[in-house]
Amino acid sequence: MSRPWPDLAVLAVLVGVDDLGSLGAAARREGMAQPNASRAVRRLEAELGVPLLRRGPRGSLLTPQGTVVVHWAREVLAGAGHLLDAAEALREEHRSELSVGASMTIAEHLVPGWLGELRRRHDGLRIQLQVHNSREVVEHVLAGRCHVGFVESPSVPRGLHSATVAHDRLVVVVTPEHPWARRRRPLRAGELAATPLVVREPGSGTRTTLDEALRDLPRPEPLLELSSGAAVRAAVLAGVGPAVVSILAVREQVEAGTLRVVEVEGLVLARRLRAVWREPRRLTGPAGDLVATARRRGQLVNA
Length: 303
Known about the structure:
Oligomer: single chain
Keywords: DNA-binding, Transcription, Transcription regulation
Domain HTH lysR-type: 6-63
Order of helices and strands: HHHEEHEHHEHEEEHEHEHEHEEEH
Protein name: LysR family transcriptional regulator
Family: Belongs to the LysR transcriptional regulatory family.
Pfam families: HTH_1, LysR_substrate
């Protein structure tokens, strides 16, 4: 049979009677009306089954049993005080840490600049960056393992708030030696869908966007599945085959001429890059500042 826990407030009143010599003074110290304090002591006496105060015309004094209870009440209150102090320390520690999740593409090309600006504005802030694909970032945010995440997914699951921080687009890239690089007309969506490609792994925002765009067309198995945009880029440069990848991952190679962008007729591969988080609806503190920084700096120029 479980026993009821004593109310800490009434224990503080009893300690006050011992310290100050009267129930009225003890109640005032604890911010209670004396009638309420008296009723609380009576309830505690009933719960413990022993008299705690000797009441008389000149006030209330502790009984011998009350003196013993007050001794242990001081221990209990001291322990509760330590608990509150520890909780406050944990809150302060929590405020000084920021756990960020980011998809591969965003982490590689955008997050370093965002975090650099955030650190300049929040001196002493400890930042933990977790890099996963978009599906995994969403799972970490939903589970509370990240304060805020950045994803490339076309949609955001229920239970999360989101804000668009930038715009991106996927492009088809090949080496200059690939036959598609010499085409005079844009590629048709059916041709792209029918061609084995170097692709990102399932769950990545890039893969999800591509699969959504080609969902009504028959497709063969991929040439190769890789876990980052950098790995996809390296495979294309090595001549493995064509790929669909974020312009962020290949901008330098396209500008240098080592990769060529192949236009696709009627296929829209633009996408939004989003920040996602749980409660509250409006982020504050370092997490809110990071999202604001991302929105300010993260507007991409479509190539």
